Amino acid sequence: MLVVMKQSATEEAINRVVETIEAMGYDARPIPGHQRTAIGLVGNDGRVDSARLEGLDGVLEVIAVSHPYKQVSREWKADDTIVTLANGTRIGGSEIAIMAGPCAVENEEQILGVAHTLRGMGATILRGGAFKPRTSPYSFQGLGVEGLELLARAREATGLAIVTEAIDSEGVEIVREYADIIQIGARNMQNYPLLRRAGQSGLPVLLKRGMSATIKELLLAAEYLLAEGNSQVILCERGVRSFDTHTRNLLDLTAIPVVKSLSHLPIIADPSHGTGLRSKVTPMARAAVAAGADGLMIEVHPQPDMALSDGAQSLYPEQFAELMKQIRVIARALDRELVEMPRVAV
Amino acid sequence: MLVVMKQSATEEAINRVVETIEAMGYDARPIPGHQRTAIGLVGNDGRVDSARLEGLDGVLEVIAVSHPYKQVSREWKADDTIVTLANGTRIGGSEIAIMAGPCAVENEEQILGVAHTLRGMGATILRGGAFKPRTSPYSFQGLGVEGLELLARAREATGLAIVTEAIDSEGVEIVREYADIIQIGARNMQNYPLLRRAGQSGLPVLLKRGMSATIKELLLAAEYLLAEGNSQVILCERGVRSFDTHTRNLLDLTAIPVVKSLSHLPIIADPSHGTGLRSKVTPMARAAVAAGADGLMIEVHPQPDMALSDGAQSLYPEQFAELMKQIRVIARALDRELVEMPRVAV
Amino acid sequence: MLVVMKQSATEEAINRVVETIEAMGYDARPIPGHQRTAIGLVGNDGRVDSARLEGLDGVLEVIAVSHPYKQVSREWKADDTIVTLANGTRIGGSEIAIMAGPCAVENEEQILGVAHTLRGMGATILRGGAFKPRTSPYSFQGLGVEGLELLARAREATGLAIVTEAIDSEGVEIVREYADIIQIGARNMQNYPLLRRAGQSGLPVLLKRGMSATIKELLLAAEYLLAEGNSQVILCERGVRSFDTHTRNLLDLTAIPVVKSLSHLPIIADPSHGTGLRSKVTPMARAAVAAGADGLMIEVHPQPDMALSDGAQSLYPEQFAELMKQIRVIARALDRELVEMPRVAV
Amino acid sequence: MLVVMKQSATEEAINRVVETIEAMGYDARPIPGHQRTAIGLVGNDGRVDSARLEGLDGVLEVIAVSHPYKQVSREWKADDTIVTLANGTRIGGSEIAIMAGPCAVENEEQILGVAHTLRGMGATILRGGAFKPRTSPYSFQGLGVEGLELLARAREATGLAIVTEAIDSEGVEIVREYADIIQIGARNMQNYPLLRRAGQSGLPVLLKRGMSATIKELLLAAEYLLAEGNSQVILCERGVRSFDTHTRNLLDLTAIPVVKSLSHLPIIADPSHGTGLRSKVTPMARAAVAAGADGLMIEVHPQPDMALSDGAQSLYPEQFAELMKQIRVIARALDRELVEMPRVAV
Predict the structure, then answer these.
(1) pLDDT band at B346 (very low <50, low <70, confident <90, very high)
(2) Residue A29's domain spans which residues?
(3) Interface contact A29, partner C, CB < 8 A
(4) Are residues A46 and A188 in the same domain?
(5) Cβ of C159: how many Cβ atoms within 10 Å?
(6) What is the per-residue pLDDT for B137?
(7) Does residue A30 sit at the D interface (CB-CB below 8 Å)?
(8) What is the C-alpha separation between C154 and D212, in angstroms, rounded?
(9) Taking CA atoms, what residue in B is nearest to C241?
(10) How many domains would you assign to chain C?
(11) ipTM above 0.85, yes or no
(12) Are residues D15 and D118 in the same domain?
């Protein structure tokens, strides 16, 4: 950490900063420059609260030099983390994992039908919401436990792994009974009690980037999971807030190579929420793979215009099949391939 | 709701939209224009999911005409809501309510000392965090129940009302035993299970605007509280995410008159989190009152450079006293005045 | 255009809106709903100033239904515009055009050397700044006319077409003597006198999206060019402003399919400025092609750490060669291929 | 400037950075820490291009410690700059200057009428556009020179000073013949040839903050003016781009105290463009004064619903009179007062 002093800072102000750093238990190292003095704080273990220094007299600004996260960083662990699921899907290695399914589980026919279709097209993970966080209290909020049971039935029938969202601590306890991956949604990225509980669940966690979370904040949220001893974490870029209203969110694909250089955790993309518009999902799914994503999460619905939620961003099954064909080619340009379902009987 | 069709939309596509609207249970009213056709959806009760229409063939865009919130809107209730606390403070009428105190409760001496000081300077509500949501899992997370007990002791000693944050459902149950107002923080603005529980608590709720929440989303989050039967809701502008890093957040004071025209709920401002820098708190607190805020939430710490969190944005007590003097004058320009502590013995 | 009235709007207020619309020379068509009345303005030719209606009594909001741009829209011209250069490069059809070169022209050795290298690797257009708009008045501002002459020499030697920026009206006159494409930079996207002059130049124009321009504003800026009779316009996504500082800008690749659905103009991507970091250029260049870009603009410098500007985002020539290999594969997934230099003697 | 190295950076990479810094003509000072090494660049005169360092092997990030601007900074000149106009108005001292008038000059009756009205209500500077930069090429673009002549006539008749915009270099030459202050609009904040020409004009310049300009970029744009020897510069906050569409822009009032601590230049606010909505102008104008603005620029139109541009954000004259009353009171809370017109015969 570097405390930059104003040009006008007095000797006394500089000493006050040095004393405060030492009182906090760190070493202070003044670095005089031509224009101004800066004071290095040495020995930062990630717990220094810069706010205490920012307000001192004569301080121009405080600049973080070390990163505040630890276990998620590539400096902590150089090798890629690979999350392995019961059905053999590996996320984070050289393969690209495909999660697909409807926004919400609606009924048995819908979810079983789409699961068979998706399995046939090459997905190995089924997505489907049972607990839905909705902006309006008057919107459909999901089938709850009934939805989880339908997902479990679809897994049994197809061999697909299940990823579904938990929106509170009790939900984590229920979801872990049914799912292969617990999803933490964008709105809950900084819901710390929920993160701790998910971290303790023992299951892999899919952590979606918050609406306006910086990459540093995303990694710090993941740090909550790892700090509970859970290193089976998959990050997910799903679009950030922007000033343009042509798309629901602005899919920040550069986050993919940025995260991969800072962290060992796998990162996938969700172009369905990232764009909010069916016709943009296919190009952005292709782009995500080309940018280096370790997987995709895609909304597919057998009858999008009958969907109870997010119909506008759901692909028709035949569009998904076409997309799968295209990303197989793109993956090759990066010396990668799609996860294939192990050829076991189902 | 207005479904705008592309110029190239066929008769068939237009009919498909009309049928879909009718299948959803609403009336469809086509409006031919010179360039294109638009189709009005009449009878929207706030539950229409536009996504279902957006994805249909030939649709250019879907435009919301009614607002999706109800009970929070001024069209639902024309008169200002006034939240009244046990110590007589009224929030939302012609008076301006002042909440002040440290970011976190640290120990008895700190909180009681500052409570007496603030009471003397004219605040009537004491703020102080006992449960702190922190970006890093390694930062100080608050004293928990012990902090709540210290707050209760400060109330007993000074007559100040207490506002403090709950970060999960269990926290709501605990906080309501101690506080006069339950605070829902910015990171939890869309934590719907938490909102429901706070709505059921029977206590007034202070709802902070999320980091990048639109005003519509803020009002919809408040709708979750009102939908549980709790109309004692105070909104709080505390800065939104921006591209400039000179301040921690961008305090959006225009949100104050915007909210007041759309909703009957009171709205206050938190210039401490809104700017993150002590030297900007006083000007922005003055500006918030001038913009029409119903109150202020200000961080004050007896020794900011010893604070366990957010020291850089905490005022020194004497700065707070000076601020109080200035806003008394500004309030007069708007024919308002500061809430005064009822002259009861303490 | 739709004027949405407040629920409380009186008959008189509604009539006032109708009269104002008629006084502006359009038809007014009131549409009563269950909750409120809306008034359609029919016959909008793109010149209606909504501001005049927004401020009227009883008006809740004014919603644009027609798009304010005309000649750039796909509704005006359904077929893709293809910009053809003297050296045979076609931009906007099924091929993908590659523009590459240093940020700034520095000297003859640099620009001729890199031109030969790039030509060998498959680029057909050479980029290089002679007039540089720089944030600080103390930064290197380009070689001016001398830079243009060096670019012309490079074209003569290699057959590459030249794209270079003009930053004022006089600059347009000079640049058109030397370049195949005049570039309008992001900072000048709304410099309307400059746009008009570029529109009159008779040369193809590369128009970069402004730092925080919406897609609508980008298309309206292009409309200035077409309104001068110049339809040889190439749009360029080069990153927008964001709240995260990990990258210089946030490359908005979704803009590519969005623009292609709204407009017939070709759109390319500039991942060098879009990310600002060499290690992110290759993945984002791949992603842009996968998203459907009609071309790429890439900074390549023979010795990036000696560059006079933007060295950090310039690829080494061997990185560019590797990138070209990868995007040839990706293009195939979209049934496209790279523009190849016509096999004429040079 | 501080070059922060990766933990994994080799001795060789560190040496390469040191050598590059020295080759650039500065001193390099390595600062070993517990986790990583950082290298200070000493002697930065504001011309260092960090890009050259960012891309070197082993570099994690480059952090600017000195500010890149000079003459605009308070460290260069500690005392407030005061801009004095021919009619005695002083901007930047203890007084608050009021500029008001219509968005565009429309005809003689309009501009003379409103000028007399505003003068009577206490404004001392008349605003009015003769050259209008418009997002659409089909919108009204101003009366040009005829508009300037009408403004001059209004000055003669009332004693009000004139502020009006120039949008290109030729415009500067024309506007300086008529105006007391040349305005550079938000879209042109980074139009550097225009800034240079305005800097050379000898007239005071009002520089509006760009749509998404950081404060650093605003100050660097002003540096272009001062670098031409013109120190009569007034900055103007007029709202930045945001994700919420309730208002046209997000008025960033915190920019006012931030600019005042970094620079000696005066800064005013334009709540008319900053909000885009008449009903929000008055509260935000009050807030700007309370935040410490040195002046206001307010759109007032005798008949807003007949305005040729921006009618929705123009105050009625009687609203302006009421606003003036309120800000007189608020100014007192800050020990300031409004500029009064010198009592000379007109």
Answers:
(1) very low
(2) 2-63
(3) no
(4) no
(5) 19
(6) 87
(7) no
(8) 37
(9) B243
(10) 2
(11) yes
(12) no
